[in-house]
Amino acid sequence: MLFRPESEQLRFLPEGPYSYPDGRLSWVAIQHGTSATFGSINLLDMTTGATQSFHLPGRPGFAFPTDQPGVFVSGAERSLGLFDTSTGNWSEFACGIDVDVDDTVVNDGVVYDGNIIFGCKDLEFATPKAGLYLWRAEDAQLIQLRDDQLCSNGKAVIERNDGLCLFDIDSPRKMVTVCDLDIQKGRVGDLDVVVDLTSEEFFPDGLILTPDHSSLIVALYNPHDVESGEARQYSVSDGRLEAVWECPGAAQVTCPQLLQRETDVSLVLTTAVEHLPAERLRKQPHAGCLFIGETDFDEIGDQPVFRIGQSGHTTSFSRTDS
Q: Which of 98, 102, 213, 279 has the most beta carbons within 10 angstroms of its beta carbon?
């Protein structure tokens, strides 16, 4: 176990860890409890152990660092915006997400070459109506790619066959899929299944690519009372299982990320308290904690920084919400 957030609210639904060259680690607490309508961005200094937590004016699905110190780009509720941790300012630059449906919010995403590819989730986990989106940096346009997601989670983009492809997870369907992605035309191709987990008791949640792009590390959210949660590494080419990391006492593993330490590269995993009543929580005493494990990697791979000012929509902070 790497870190235990101080409150149950911060342990409820941690996701999206991200590492920094200065030794810090960030993640989002998506929701501060079952009925909460807000979450936070959290920072851990790996050198000193000091922590900071910054409340957002909504529930963040993701938050990534930018090229401006202390500023994050985040998807929260139904908008994209910039959050300045030094002032608490929240400045939206893309609104109207999933405007044609009710009861969805932004969930997981990824930054690629200045663009943001992200998905939403149906809050009832019942109707395939949530969108998959591209925010295109070139012209600051929000483009809907799909409208049939239930709970859109882990994503990664790589170059392949003279184009781009998007690895994607819609968690209730229990599959990791891949499709062509055309950013210029704003569209995606047909889905192919990379990893089929429909026979398993857990659900795939967040994912990252290994540094050489040959494999995927997938966090597995297990809603059952098992001794340990897991993240697994699967081959991109054939879906073969290559490695397993375990989180004792925390079955609901939500997201992975690689972290550069002084002498090695480690894997960080977030876990969640969500859906655990007191009786079940006693059986999973480390739920909501962050874990760290060994790897054989010698670099951390893709962890891009979002460039502020790459379009006219992200050049300043003009709006403050509280």
A: 98
Mean pLDDT on 198-227: 97
| Sign of the CA dihedral with 154 first, then 156, 161, and 162 last | positive
Q: Which tens digit of pLDDT belongs to each residue from 97-115?
A: 999 999 999 999 999 999 9
Q: Please name every residue paired with 219 in a beta bridge, in sequence order, or none if there are none.
A: 231
Cα(36)–Cα(116) distance, integer angstroms: 26
**pLDDT tens column, 66-78:** 999 999 999 999 9
User: Quick check: is 91 in a domain?
Assistant: yes
Mean of per-residue pLDDT scores for the chain: 93
1 part of a folded domain: no
The pLDDT score that the predictor gives to residue 310 is: 58
Domain interval for residue 99:
8-314
N- to C-terminal Cα separation, the chain: 34
The count of structural domains within the chain is: 1
CATH code (residue 181): 2.120.10.30
Give the Cα separation of 304 and 301 in Å (integer): 9
Is residue 225 classed exposed, middle or buried when 0-12, 13-18 and 19+ CB atoms within 10 A define those classes?
exposed
DSSP 67: S
The pLDDT of residue 263 is 87
Q: Is residue 15 part of a domain?
A: yes
143 near 157, Cβ under 8 Å? no
Task: Give residues with Cβ within 8 angstroms of 185, minimum separation 6.
Answer: none
Which of 200, 154, 199 has its CA nearest to residue 177?
154
Q: Exposed e or buried b for every residue in 159-187, given b needs 16+ CB within 10 A?
A: eeeeebbbbbbbbbbbbbbbbbbebeebe
Nearest to 292 by CA among 257, 266, 311: 266
Q: How confident is the model at residue 9 (pLDDT cuts 50, 70, 90)?
A: very high
